[in-house]
Amino acid sequence: MLTAKQVQELLKLRPLEVEGGYFAESYRSALSSAIYYMLTPDTFSAMHRLKGDEVYHFYLGDPVEMLTLKPDGTAEALLLGQNLDGGMRVQHAVTGGTWQGSRLAPGGKFALMGTTMAPGFDPKEFEPGERDALSAQYPAYAPLLAFLTR
Questions:
Q1: Hey, which of 37, 58, 70, 81 has its CA 20 to 30 A from 108?
Q2: Structural fold of domain 20-145
């Protein structure tokens, strides 16, 4: 299997400064956009929310822990990965207005995913999450939020 560094070089992935991880835009039209997205042991996708829906696609590597905090006060922690029999998902949709964050599952080396959005991603619609505010609203997830916020 390829190493994280080899995948980064082949796909021309670069650091995603505000959110974390590595990415490369692979498609953009007037209606939608798509990216490759990689997590490594020293990166994570910081809690954030977008106005539009975002669909995650798991391609290869190790499992990813994802946390979604919904506007109605409910939350879901799930695993993206290839072990479908074990309850992992290879695809997951995050509806607009939902807080989301993810990290490589402990012990993993890297995960390569993709995301698609329609309409396409607009950086002006990216809202970073704040640890204290999210932990107060979703106290059961405060320990995981400590890992997924800066």
A1: 70
A2: Jelly Rolls (2.60.120)
Q: How many Cβ atoms sit within 10 Å of the Cβ of residue 136? A: 10
Beta-sheet strand order (sheet of 75-80): 75-80, 64-69, 99-104, 44-49, 127-128
Domains of the chain, residue spans: 20-145
pLDDT tens for residues 111-120? 999 999 999 9
> What local confidence, expressed as pLDDT, does residue 1 receive?
82
Which pTM was predicted? Answer: 0.94
**Overall residue count recorded for the chain in this entry:** 150
On the question of a cis peptide bond just before residue 119, with omega within 30 degrees of 0, the verdict is yes
Q: Which two tokens stand for residue 114?
A: 């993709």
pLDDT in tens, 87-123: 999 999 999 999 999 999 999 999 999 999 999 999 9
